[in-house]
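Q: What would this chain look like folded?
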Amino acid sequence: QVRLVESGGGLVQAGGSLRLSCLASGSMFSINAVGWYRQAPGKLRELVAATTSGGSTMYADSVKGRFTISRDNAKNTVYLQMNSLKFEDTAVYYCHVGFYWGQGTQVTVSS
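A: My prediction, written as structure tokens:
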């Protein structure tokens, strides 16, 4: 079983930055792809960024050039660096590995 704990969310002004962290328990973390998703009120959960065990990355078009996903397998942690935040980035951000989800961390961007 894998337990995921997100942190780093908060309130930030438009144009600001935040770094989210996802700390995973369990030995399977390093061999799995990890994704960051987000869900805004009234909207479906969407994939924001993902990284494979080999370090390949992908991003949603809406965050390309602003967000960076990275992982530290030795620390069982995946990060999401979010720069140039926009009001529309406001959402609960979730970490996902295999069948497992974290509890989410709220990101609120004020315009």
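The mean pLDDT is 94.
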